[in-house]
Design a protein that fits this description.
heterodimer; A: mainly beta; four-stranded antiparallel sheet; 13 strands; about 0% helix; about 55% strand; globular; B: six-stranded mixed sheet; 11 strands
Chain lengths: ~120, ~110
């Protein structure tokens, strides 16, 4: 397996524009997580899915953020409209629930978002 | 409120010496702890873990110690190598709840040759 794949690797956009980040989890993993990394907060969980269903989105900072997982192999994180304070590295991760015990999460390479 | 705390944002160590990275947690439900390593422009990668039923887990140069009464764990790297220079994230999990990993803010380790 190629691991968790995120696209794009880098995104520079103007304030007010819509941004869509994409993620392909590892095949067979039934948990998918979106994290955001900033200097101030470190790695913070935004939302996670189990079997394509959103379980907890309490980490999503505002209504401008939304995430979907239409099938087991694809998820998107959308920011509309984007603001400069959204600039960060966004990571997608996936894990498998093996016999009721979560395995460690595997991370993608991240999308570095810059909103100017 | 941070449930997992890494109070040292950075650490510098001479090559060949021991690196000790510390992590504290507040949630008593956490029963599984992990360390991730992150190089620039890459995603975090799993390094080593420990279950709450143990107080030590060793893997080559890396050892994680867990002190449940103090809600404290540490990662020891001996001997430190320049390639160990990275950001290290402590993470905690509650297997009973199937909840996501909770990460600390990370500690940037610099191993100086």
């Amino acid at each position: 397996d190629a691991g968790v794949i995120q696209s794009p690797r880098h995104e520079v956009t103007e304030m007010g524009q819509e941004v869509t980040l994409r993620c392909k989890p590892i095949s067979g993993h039934d948990y998918l997580f979106w994290y955001r990394q900033t200097m101030m907060r470190g790695l913070e969980l935004l939302i996670y899915f189990n079997n394509n269903v959103p379980i907890d989105d309490s980490g999503m900072p505002e209504d401008r953020f939304s995430a979907k997982m239409p099938n087991a192999s694809f998820s998107t994180l959308k920011i509309q409209p984007s603001e400069p304070r959204d600039s960060a590295v966004y990571f997608c991760a996936s894990s498998a629930n093996v016999r009721g015990v979560n395995t460690e999460a595997f991370f993608g390479q991240g999308t570095r978002l810059t909103v100017v | 409120d941070q449930q997992v705390k890494q109070n040292s944002p950075s650490l510098s160590v001479q090559e060949g010496r021991i690196s000790i990275l510390n992590c504290d947690y507040t949630n008593s439900m956490f029963d599984y702890f992990l360390w991730y390593k992150k190089y620039p422009a890459e995603g975090p990668t799993f390094l080593i873990s420990i279950s709450s039923i143990k107080d030590k887990n060793e893997d080559g140069r890396f050892t994680v110690f867990l002190n449940k009464s103090a809600k404290h764990l540490s990662l020891h790297i001996v001997p430190s190598q320049p390639g160990d220079s990275a950001v290290y994230f402590c993470a905690a999990d509650s297997n009973s709840g199937n909840t996501p990993l909770v990460f600390g803010k990370g500690t940037r380790l610099s191993v100086i040759a």
